[in-house]
């Protein structure tokens, strides 16, 4: 069987990831090594390993950073207590937090000042959620599923605001928002959706590939990448086989048995060269004919942190 490969566009790096990767690149060139990065700068194994090979030191806690050293905060954001710890230890900080994550943090403070109870939809252990919850410890309730909604307790059911982790599945978040509103009919959301443009665009692109008959979807991205995991879920929920892979070496030829239409996409933290490697392998091993499917054009750019201006 001849193989047709439909490649999603948009895919791969979003503006927030481009900005975070650029921050580390510039820091490596402008400042003397080592450059410390708190957590993974973005959730992609290839990106992290490439930086580590060039002298970037990834750490989990600021205690691991010598006093006075340079530290970069990852794209996922940090809690205020982390910023305060950096100040106390005299660390030089470059903040690579995605502006869309910062938007959620600012919303949390604004609605708390206005007397609202905050409900955050997200995944408990994700770095972004840890940072957002840290903006108001004990004052934000986390909901991971529809079942969690039953445990919510608020002083005023008429003053509830729903915030969302930026990298969630649109369909999943809609279900949870609907469940919250069944309990609290007056619950509101921010004027602009918290789920980021890139997450939405990549999920919409996967849905378009499925409408065009894709039987198997390959998602290039790392296991700890929330938005990449959501792309796999979107496909599987529609009945399509889907696999998440860090690179072309993880492809199993048995996946393609009697498969004539394959889809390829990449999470928002996966570099384009990994996608090219996958396409090259499919052409070489299966004689694949590749067609790009453009769903939406992206022209979003974020300026560098003030520390690098």
Strand neighbour order, sheet with most strands: 10-9-11-1-12
Order of SSEs, N→C? EHEHEEHEHEHEEHHEHEEHE
Query: What is the number of domains?
Result: 3
Mean pLDDT: 96
Mind summarizing the main beta sheet? 5 strands, parallel
Radius of gyration, Cα only, in angstroms?
21 Å
The CATH C-level name of the largest domain is Alpha Beta
CATH superfamily of the largest domain: 4-hydroxy-3-methylbut-2-enyl diphosphate reductase, catalytic domain
Key words describing this protein structure:
309 residues, Cobalt-precorrin-4 Transmethylase, domain 1, 3 domains
Structure at a glance:
By secondary structure, the protein is an alpha/beta fold. The chain is built from 9 helices and 12 strands. It has 3 domains: 4-13 and 196-294, 4-hydroxy-3-methylbut-2-enyl diphosphate reductase, catalytic domain (Cobalt-precorrin-4 Transmethylase, domain 1, 3-Layer(aba) Sandwich), CATH 3.40.1010; 15-97, Rossmann fold (3-Layer(aba) Sandwich); 100-195, 3-Layer(aba) Sandwich (Cobalt-precorrin-4 Transmethylase, domain 1), CATH 3.40.1010.
């Amino acid at each position: 069987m001849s193989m047709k490969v439909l490649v999603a566009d948009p895919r791969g790096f979003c503006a927030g990831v481009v900005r975070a990767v650029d921050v580390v690149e510039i820091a490596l060139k402008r400042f003397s090594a080592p450059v410390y990065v708190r957590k993974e700068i973005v959730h992609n194994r290839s990106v992290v390993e490439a930086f580590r090979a060039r002298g970037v030191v990834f750490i989990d806690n600021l205690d691991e950073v010598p006093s006075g050293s340079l530290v970069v905060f990852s794209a996922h954001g940090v809690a205020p207590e982390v910023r305060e710890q950096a100040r106390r230890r005299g660390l030089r900080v470059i903040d690579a937090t995605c502006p869309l994550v910062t938007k959620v943090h600012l919303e949390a403070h604004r609605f708390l000042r206005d007397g609202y109870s905050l409900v955050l939809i997200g995944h408990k252990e994700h770095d972004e959620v840890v940072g957002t919850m840290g903006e108001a410890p004990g004052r934000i309730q986390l909901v991971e599923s529809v079942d969690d909604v039953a445990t919510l307790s608020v002083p005023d059911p008429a003053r509830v605001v729903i915030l969302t982790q930026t990298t969630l599945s649109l369909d999943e978040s809609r279900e949870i928002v609907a469940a919250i509103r069944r309990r609290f009919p007056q619950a509101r959301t921010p004027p602009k959706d918290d789920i980021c443009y890139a997450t939405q665009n990549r999920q919409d692109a996967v849905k378009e590939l499925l409408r065009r008959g894709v039987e198997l979807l390959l998602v290039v991205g790392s296991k700890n990448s929330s938005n990449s995991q959501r792309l796999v879920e979107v496909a599987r929920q529609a009945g399509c086989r889907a696999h998440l892979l860090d690179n072309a070496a993880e492809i199993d030829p048995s996946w393609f048995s009697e498969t004539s239409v394959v889809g390829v996409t990449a999470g928002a933290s996966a570099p384009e060269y990994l996608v090219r490697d996958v396409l090259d392998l499919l052409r070489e091993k299966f004689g694949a004919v590749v067609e790009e499917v453009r769903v939406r054009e992206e022209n979003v750019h974020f300026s560098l942190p003030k520390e690098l201006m």
